[in-house]
Design goal:
Blueprint (H helix, E strand, L loop, with lengths): L2 H27 L10 H13 L2 H12 L7 H4 L1 H22 L7 H9 L8 H22 L3 H15 L2 H4 L7 H5 L19 H14 L6 H23 L15 H16 L7 H11 L2 H22 L3 H4 L3 H32 L3
Helix pairs in contact: 1-3, 1-13, 1-14, 1-15, 1-17, 2-12, 3-11, 3-13, 5-15, 7-11, 8-11, 12-13, 15-17
């Protein structure tokens, strides 16, 4: 692929991942997880929601894809300042929003504590994870590149999947209860079969898969990529419905970020978006998506503010949670647009601050 084409593909993946993320939050804030899964509408949402869980994995795959050839240099680590400063500025906005709009009493101590704990912005957990991953990137990329062959790189990924993901589908059953198999939603306490200590290392799994996709891709045709994606979505969607039918939506290892389900789906989505030919796509839309992609990080962090405002009104005017699902196609795009605008304004302020500091003479 040409450089410009590849950049557009990556920009598109970023924007699509943000859409999935805000879409996933829709189900959280509208009370879907408190509804019994016993209607056709609930079955459909439970079936389709598996694709929305690919949002964070897509971002992690991007990290590996973009940093395959990263070397250890100070210039790279200087990027951390902008990452953290963006989090801090948006975190301050969230803190004051909590204090004045939501009326929560917070002190200077709370401000300092939240800043250090990466909870100043409620979605700051990803920043906390990403900064640690960012510090490791040159070393991880070196490790990957130093492996002697494609086979060894596959072995590395296989071992990481074994350590971080297999438990998500193995430690997820109650083998000694016949009634549980008839209705899995009756209990979310499962029998542990294999170790799962390394589960929290899943960002490394996605990083190395991203590196592999950059170097080799999935080596399947576009037609087969679509076929495997549809089949995977069908199987994982049905599995998700089976786990929750007759009860509340059940969260488990099979739909967490580290799950094999997410690894398969997100890798297929990533590879497909990466290899679709977009020559027919209007140039102005490519330019727009490219500009939007630079705002995704800030939009993700500040989206919490707009989610609180929008869902407060939606839940008030539509008291029946099942009816709120009808507003997905309106609410999610609106929050996404507002978040991108908020991110743009934050970037403008940051550029002004940086420019002002550069002009100051000490």
């Amino acid at each position: 692929m040409e450089r410009n084409s590849r950049n557009f593909h990556l920009d598109l993946i970023r924007v699509f991942a943000l859409f999935l993320l805000i879409g996933l939050h829709f189900f959280l804030h509208t009370g879907f997880y408190q509804e019994v899964i016993n209607s056709n509408r609930a079955f459909l949402v439970t079936f389709l929601i598996v694709i929305f869980f690919c949002c964070v994995p897509l971002f992690m795959l991007l990290t590996g894809y973009l940093h395959l050839n990263q070397t250890l240099e100070m210039k790279f680590y200087k990027k951390l300042f902008k990452i953290y400063f963006t989090y801090f500025v948006i975190g301050c906005i969230c803190f004051f929003f909590e204090s004045y709009y939501l009326g929560r009493q917070q002190s200077i101590f709370d401000f300092v504590r939240k800043t250090l704990a990466f909870s100043l912005a409620p979605y700051g957990w990803y920043v906390e994870m990403y900064i640690g991953l960012f510090l490791l990137i040159p070393f991880l990329a070196l490790l990957y590149r130093s492996l002697p062959s494609k086979l060894w790189k596959k072995r590395l990924i296989f071992v990481l999947i074994l350590l971080t993901s297999v438990s998500s589908v193995v430690n997820a059953y109650v083998f000694d209860s016949v009634s549980w198999w008839l209705q899995p939603s009756s209990s979310n306490e499962f029998i542990k079969i294999i170790p799962q200590w390394w589960v929290q290392m899943y960002p490394l799994t996605y990083f190395f898969i991203g590196c592999y996709l950059r170097e080799y891709g999935l080596e399947i045709s576009r037609k087969n990529n679509i076929l495997y994606l549809v089949l995977s979505l069908f199987f994982f969607g049905l599995y998700n419905v089976w786990r929750s039918v007759g009860g509340l939506y059940v969260h488990g290892g099979w739909n967490y970020w580290e799950s094999i389900n997410n690894i398969i789906l997100s890798s297929l989505i990533f590879n497909l978006l990466l290899n679709i030919q977009w020559s027919w796509f209007p140039t102005y839309l490519k330019t727009l998506i490219s500009k939007i992609s630079h705002l995704v990080y800030g939009a993700y962090l500040i989206s919490w503010v707009f989610e609180v405002i929008v869902y407060e009104h939606l839940n008030h005017f539509v008291p029946i949670s099942n009816k709120r699902l009808e507003y997905f196609v309106i609410v999610v795009p609106v929050i996404m647009i507002l978040s991108l605008i908020g991110s743009y304004l934050v970037n403008v302020v940051m550029k002004f601050v940086f420019k002002s500091f550069k002009t100051i003479r000490f």
